[in-house]
Design brief:
Layout lengths: L2 H27 L7 E5 L2 E5 L10 E7 L6 E8 L7 E6 L9 E5 L2 H5 L1 H7 L1 E3 L1 E4 L4 E6 L2 H8 L4 E6 L6 E6 L4 H16 L1 H4 L3
Antiparallel strand pairs: 1-2, 2-3, 3-4, 4-5, 5-9, 6-7, 6-10, 8-9, 10-11
Length: about 200
């Protein structure tokens, strides 16, 4: 290898190392560990606590509002408890009938043509507790539910009011879900990265 070739190789290596260091320094310099973030993706938003809140995690959130009063009917959140697995966490309105629980179903051509198939495909879950904010339901996100969420077919939450036996259905929109999920995964990976945790 000639002196010129060696110099070119060293120069190229120094350029690559400099670019990587510049990227790392820029990332650390702009990484505010005490700032929360929230970004909207159509029907969803991704909310992340400050990086120095090490035990907390990001959430994917959707609020279902009443079409007339614009008051919140249901809060839908995808969360991951510390050391746990992903959950679909639902905050349903107070005054629901607790015994039937909540049903979750997704739109599909088969279910639209066959109500019996829709009923069989419905995921059901019991209420965990009720607070001043509403009645809470946790649905584990297993492979089947994840596939339905990734399938881009909107869903419905079905519940019963304590004052009426007629089921009430509220929409679960998957518009923007894919982009929100990508942002959620990226933020969670960053929060758990040793490189970023070193600065938080």
């Amino acid at each position: 290898m000639t002196n010129l070739t060696q110099k070119l190789a060293l120069g190229a290596a120094a350029l690559v190392v400099g670019a990587v260091l510049g990227w790392a320094v820029r990332g650390v310099a702009t990484y505010n560990t005490s700032t929360q973030s929230m970004t909207s993706y159509d029907s969803w938003r991704v909310a992340c606590p400050a990086a120095n809140q090490k035990e907390a995690g990001c959430e994917m959130i959707q609020d279902v509002l009443d079409s007339q009063s614009h008051a919140e009917i249901t809060r839908i959140a995808i969360v991951k408890p510390p050391g746990g697995k992903l959950l679909l966490n639902l905050t349903m309105p107070l005054g629901v009938a607790l015994e039937p629980g909540v049903g979750l179903t997704f739109d599909s051509d088969t279910e639209a043509k066959d109500p019996k198939a829709a009923k069989q495909a419905m995921i059901t879950a019991k209420y965990r507790t009720c607070t001043q904010q509403g009645c809470i339901v946790d649905i584990p996100i297993d492979d089947k539910l994840q596939a339905q969420l990734d399938g881009d077919k909107d869903g419905r939450l079905v519940f019963v009011s304590a004052n009426d036996t007629k089921p009430i259905a509220v929409p679960l929109s998957l518009k923007g879900y894919a982009a929100a999920k990508s942002a959620y995964n990226s933020n969670e990976a960053k929060r758990s990265s040793w490189f970023w945790r070193m600065w938080s």
